[in-house]
Specification:
elongated; 18 strands; six-stranded mixed beta sheet; three-stranded antiparallel beta sheet; Rossmann fold; alpha+beta; 2 domains; about 30% strand
Amino acid sequence: MFGKTLVHLAAGAALIVGGAIGCSSSKESASRDTLTQNVGIYPPGPSGVNKPRVGVPPFQVQAGSGFGGGGDLNGLAADQMTTLLDQTERLRVIERAQLQKLLDEQNLEGIVKPGELAKQGQVRGVDYLLLGKVTNLRVKHEKKGNGFGFAQIGGMVNMGGADIKNDETVITTECGVDIRLVDPTTGELLLSNFSEYKKTDSAKSMGLAILGANAQSKADIQLSEDDKGKILRLALDDAVRKSLPKLDKFLKNQPSKTSADAAPANTNPPANNPAAVTNNAVAPATGAPAGNTAVAGKKFCPECGTANDAGAKFCAKCGHKLD
């Protein structure tokens, strides 16, 4: 009887411990979700405006302590900015792989460098490029936690010979974000914005896991690749959010941008002729011929109907691939 009682007590203790672990895990997940729950959620933009086609080349990321090594931060920043710009629902954002393909097909590989326009050039299928730089991206230990020990256990991480509880560590993440919208054909700067991102909170509240640091105050600490990406995404989201007033103003007053190869629309086609004559090339009044038929030295885009040179691989107006 005594043995059965011990078994029941042990089982009850296991359930309590398991429930506590599950609860802790849920709280940790909740804190991580809270940090990024508003990322990419923006107020609606102006209605009735043209949405220009924008490409995002690799950023220039100057990483400080805590962000050394690991993956390609330049490409990661550009990927994250591409997603965030699309979520503003103010622009037609070109997928990064497609942008690189456009540059390669048009022999414009050297037109951009990380964070800057290296030389001017018309990129068919792209209205503007969004260039970006992230400076002094770092995370640092702001002050000591309450508990130090001698071994790494539970929620504690080793920091230069001592241990500190992850949930008691206060950290500061910071960087500067400089974004510029440019016309690649002319090099004209159309919109720019610089913002400083800084957040100080406990590692637990920010949902960050410290991998290592020195136990001294204000020492730089190390994070996982996922947490580095999270901080970068938060900083870029903050920059986009602060840029929206300027972007909305630009969209309302943006200059008209027409392609040199785009054919003017014929607003009065003959009533008895189903075809509209444009630049000595015959195309149906309702759009381009089926497929990418070349007529009189022109190739019509099946997506928007624009007349392109017969040898064009991408539409000069919308960037759609031509067979």
